[in-house]
Amino acid sequence: MPSIKLTLQVLCGDAIAMGPGKAELLDRIRHTGSIAGAARDMGMSYRRAWQLVDVMNRCWCGRLVETVPGRSSGGACLTQLGETVLARYRALQASLDDCAATNGWHDLTTLIREKPLLHQPEANAARPVGER
Amino acid sequence: MPSIKLTLQVLCGDAIAMGPGKAELLDRIRHTGSIAGAARDMGMSYRRAWQLVDVMNRCWCGRLVETVPGRSSGGACLTQLGETVLARYRALQASLDDCAATNGWHDLTTLIREKPLLHQPEANAARPVGER
After folding, report:
1. Which of A20, B56, B72, B110 has the highest local Cβ count within 10 Å?
2. What is the model's pLDDT at position A2?
3. Which residues of B touch A3 (CB under 8 A)?
4. Backbone Cα Rg of chain A
């Protein structure tokens, strides 16, 4: 089935303050209660997950993730700001999905195939005519 | 300045039928009159540009790009369908940008910094607590 993929990124200078991967990381930190657990769930290294958290914590007006002081097990939770930013990001994503469904997405789907053709059936289809 | 980046992709099965790169390629094919010229403009190989054209030509209900028969110089132009798909893709992108501006984008910008902090100022900011 034809479908649309909308990737929403919030940029702070050159840094990506929020995007699909960071939003999922926040969800999993909330669920697992630690950056390490979230990293495991997402199949990424702890250091990589921490780097993503560090970027978020430096892009927003306050930290989105707080580690639990005095614990060495990497316990972490979302701050109130973290919960707010995540909720607003999800809400914006949802409103954009709605917009896509009601603003011309149908105009495109009527023109697309269910699946790509496996090869060019026509003789003068675009094809390489030698390297350049 | 905080900003938003919306990446719109149209999927046909597992293939990306249209996205920012393919839309730009179509624009440049129209402008240069050839796949080779468009590839040069975008700093990609002719073969890579042709592969992108081939995917588009197999995903939509007809070819978006047609090579000029009998020419060995890679002359190409957009079909009427190509013009239509590109216009509708651009229109959907524009309507999504409008939606973002009027649906909660402001709620996020009020919470983001102009630029990321260079480092964590607080003592208990999230930080690595040993490898896992």
Report:
1. B56
2. 75
3. 10-11
4. 21
Closest CB to A50: pick one of B39, B105, B126: B126
Say how far apart CA B74 and CA B46 lie, in whole Å.
Answer: 9
Report which of B92, A119, B32, A79 is spatially closest to residue B42, judged by C-alpha positions: B32
pLDDT tens string A75-99? 899 999 999 999 999 999 999 988 8
Chain A neighbours among B 53-112 (CB < 8 Å)?
53-55, 57-61, 63, 65-67, 69, 71-74, 76, 81, 84-85, 88-89, 91-92, 95-96, 98-100, 103-105, 107-108, 111-112
Exposure string (b/e) for B34-60, b if CB count within 10 Å is 16 or more? bbbbbbbbbebebeebbebbbbbbbbb
- How far apart CA A96 and CA B27 sit, in angstroms, is 25
pTM, 2 dp: 0.79
Half-sphere exposure of A24 (CA within 13 A, CB side): 10
Among all chains, which residue has been given the structure tokens 């707080």? A66
Closest CA to A100 of B80, B2, B111, B97: B97
